[in-house]
Structure formats: structure tokens, C-alpha cells
Design brief:
By secondary structure, the chain is of the alpha+beta class. It folds into three domains: 70 residues, Ribosomal Protein L25, Chain P, CATH 2.40.240.10; 83 residues, Beta Complex (RNA Polymerase Alpha Subunit, Chain A, domain 2); 35 residues, no CATH class. The strands form three sheets. The protein has a five-stranded mixed sheet with strand order 2-1-5-4-3, covered by helices on one side. The protein has a four-stranded mixed sheet with strand order 9-6-8-11, with no helix packed on it. The longest helix has 26 residues. It is extended, with a radius of gyration of 32 Å. The N and C termini lie far apart (93 Å).
């Protein structure tokens, strides 16, 4: 399929159905992503300022199968998700062997279309120890941009490396005998099953002898 269907809509805007060349859209998405305003020219020649609002993808191959474009007014604030770009190198990771933990990869913001950042940079080089965190309030954005996330939300942190004892405990837990789990019955080995049957036979014989002796 060489074209993708889509719909363009907006506040006080009549919905417009359209088709776009797949290669052209792939290039637009690579350049603009979902947080950059760009112009589209409709079939009648009319140009609109839009954002990519949503992309529906094929569950098997991940290719776009439908696109939603939102027409923006340059004098009206909009809400949009902006991706986080992690840069630099954390001394806590490089020198102390810690593990970088990213708690989010995008944040929702509110601003005028012309002030919308294409991405927000997160410099992780400031995390020198395991007690250093980067919060939403630390994100470098213009005062014209409002981040719609709790300022105290942790964006990134560095976990301490696990000790040999902790790794050994984890390995031990993984190898835990499943027969210890409630509801799981351990299957008998063939030889054990055989031994059990023989034992039952011997017990039955003894009971029979006792009963016979009583009758006599």
C-alpha cells in the first residue's frame, strides 16, 4: 500500500479526509515527530498549520495505517507531548558502576504553537552520585512553556550496582523448587512410582493374611 489515509481536524475546523504518500509521511515524521508544527497543503491548495496528533499502526509490522492531524491556531495555546533527549554521561554510571533509570521519555506541555519545543534536553552528567536525581522541575524549558506534570516527579536516577550477595540471592530465588509453590504437585519419578506400587501390594498381602488368620 503506497498511501495512508488520515483525517485533519481542529477547533472550529471542518474535518478533512485525506491520503498521503507513505514515503512522504515517513520523511515528515522523521523530521517533525509529534511535537513540531508543519504546514500541509490540501487538495484545493489551502495550507494548514498542523501537528501529528495520533498514528494508528499495524500490530504486526508497526507501519502507519491511519493518521490524525490537528490544525492549530498560532494565537491559541495547545497541549502536546514533547520527547525527552537524554544527553551527557553520568559519573555515577561511568565511575561508580550504577545503572541509569529513565522514568519517562516524554512530558506533556502547554504553550503557544510557536513556543512548542521539538524536544527537551536532559543532561544526565549532573548525576554524580546515587543520591542525585533529575526532577521535572529541573527540565530546561522556556518560561513560555508550562509542563503539565507534577514538578516533583523523578525523570531519571541512578541505581547502585548489585553486590555479589544480592546477585546470588536473586539466582537462588530463580532456581527455587517449584514444589514449594502452593498448588503445585511434584511428579513422582518412574522408579519412585514403582516402589510405591510395590509397597501398596505388600501391605495388601499382609492385610489379607491377617484377615485369613482371624477367620481360622
Amino acid at each position: 500500500m503506497g498511501a495512508i489515509p488520515g483525517i485533519l481536524y481542529g477547533r472550529e475546523v471542518k474535518n478533512v479526509m485525506f491520503w498521503v504518500n507513505r514515503r512522504e509521511f515517513d520523511q515528515i515524521y522523521e523530521d517533525a515527530g509529534e511535537s513540531t508544527i508543519f504546514k500541509v497543503k490540501l487538495a484545493d491548495g489551502d495550507e494548514r498549520n498542523v501537528l501529528i496528533k495520533e498514528i494508528q499502526r499495524d500490530i504486526l509490522n508497526g507501519k502507519p495505517i491511519h493518521i490524525d492531524l490537528y490544525q492549530v491556531r498560532m494565537d491559541e495555546e495547545i497541549e502536546a507531548k514533547v520527547g525527552l533527549e537524554f544527553t551527557g554521561e553520568s559519573p555515577a554510571v561511568k565511575e561508580l558502576g550504577g545503572i541509569l533509570v529513565k522514568n519517562m521519555d516524554e512530558v506533556e506541555v502547554k504553550c503557544l504553537p510557536g513556543d512548542l519545543p521539538s524536544e527537551i534536553e536532559v543532561d544526565i552528567s549532573r548525576m554524580k552520585g546515587f543520591d542525585d536525581y533529575i526532577y521535572v522541575k529541573d527540565l530546561p524549558v522556556s518560561d513560555k512553556v508550562e509542563i503539565l506534570v507534577d514538578p516533583e516527579t523523578v525523570v531519571a536516577m541512578v541505581d547502585e550496582p548489585r553486590s555479589e550477595e544480592e546477585l546470588a540471592d536473586l539466582e537462588k530465588e530463580v532456581k527455587e523448587d517449584v514444589t514449594q509453590v502452593e498448588g503445585v504437585v511434584k511428579e513422582e519419578k518412574p522408579e519412585e512410582a514403582g516402589e510405591s506400587k510395590e509397597g501398596m501390594k505388600e501391605e495388601a498381602k499382609e492385610e489379607k493374611k491377617e484377615k485369613t488368620g482371624e477367620k481360622k
